[in-house]
Amino acid sequence: MQAINQPRSGFHLFRYSSPPEFYRLAGKAVPAFAALAALLALAGLYLGFFVAPTDAQQGEAYRIMFVHVPAAWMAMFVYVVMAFWAALGLVFNTRISAIMASALAPTGALMAFLSLWTGALWGRPAWGTYWDWDARMTSTLILLFLYMGFMALHSAIDDSRRADRAAGVLALVGVVNVPIIYFSVQWWNSLHQGSSISLGRAPTIAAPMLAAMLVMALAFWMYCIAAALTRARAIVLERERGSEWVRALAGERA
Amino acid sequence: MNWGSWHEFLNMGGYGRYVWGAYGVVAIAVAIEIAGLRARLARARRSSIGGRARRNAASAP
């Protein structure tokens, strides 16, 4: 009882997992992340279209890279973060963890779709085909299906706690796909080119191109955080409807 | 500066439909997600307020 009576003393990890506290803090964080996303996107587009030079081999078509690579990175990264929150939710049974996993899934699915779409439109001028059943593209398509499966399974189960657990297990099983996507261009003969930048090796693209790509990647990252936090706030309100704090919140507003 | 005119910019060295097809769909998709999120949050807020109003009405003498 002692611990419950002194919730704010010292370092209290689970404090932010209380829905009212999460709702309030996320509400403050979203405008900051959204503003950063907008500013970084403007800077990235400027660098990508006006500073980065024409590519010697691909002409202007390569400029698709500045949205394709960030979308593909975020599709993989968001999945790992989603699986992380799903795992925390399964282990600690904290409500906000499972809500974060649910909040990330649609944004991750959007990123997977955008990486496939922009990849198709880049593949046509670069390789002469929109699509090929090679390892990188097929595993990215599976990533999109995993996101959609997570959302479908979650919405198919009425009880939200049970839905969290079932979808959480699916998210964890699916995480094996992420390293498969990442290393697919090394493990299999692929139409898709290898990565232009990686740890421990100098980038193989020109500096202004790299700068534009990294700034756009940061913009996508900030956008994903803002979108997922906004969705998580909506889910919190939907699930906590009728609880004391939501009624108090409605009272403030009324 | 890479472009001498608007036409050159939009033409993208002959790859205009690929480049703008990619960027256009990214912009549309992000706009749709933002609009959907705003609507969902507003709906969740309204229904929490609506729930309160209904309860107040029900408990009124």
Could you write a compact summary of the structure shown?
Chain A has helices at 2-5, 19-51, 65-92, 95-127, 135-156, 160-174, 177-187, 207-239, 244-253. Chain A has 254 residues and is mainly α.
Write the layout of secondary structure elements.
The complex is a heterodimer of chains A (254) and B (61).
Chain A: H1 2-5, H2 19-51, H3 65-92, H4 95-127, H5 135-156, H6 160-174, H7 177-187, H8 207-239, H9 244-253
Helix pairs in contact in A: 2-8, 3-4, 3-5, 3-6, 3-8, 4-5, 4-6, 4-8, 5-6, 5-7
Chain B: H1 6-11, H2 16-59
Descriptive overview:
The complex is a heterodimer of chains A (254) and B (61). With 254 residues, chain A is mainly alpha-helical. Chain A has one domain. Chain A is 74% helix and 0% strand. Chain A is built from nine helices and no strands. The longest helix of chain A is centred in the N-terminal third of the chain and has 33 residues, at 19-51. Chain A is globular. Chain B is mostly helical and 61 residues long. Chain B has a domain at 18-54. In chain B, 82% of the residues lie in helices and 0% in strands. Chain B starts with 5 loop residues before the first helix and ends with a helix. The model of chain B has no long low-confidence stretch (mean pLDDT 86). The A-B interface holds A 49-50, 53-54, 59-61, 63-64, 67-68, 71, 106-107, 110, 113-114, 117-118, 121-122, 124-125, 223, 227, 230-231, 233-234, 237-238, 241-242, 246-247, 249-251, 253-254 and B 1-3, 9, 12-15, 18-19, 21-23, 25-26, 29-30, 33-34, 37-38, 40-41, 43-45, 47-49, 51-53, 55.
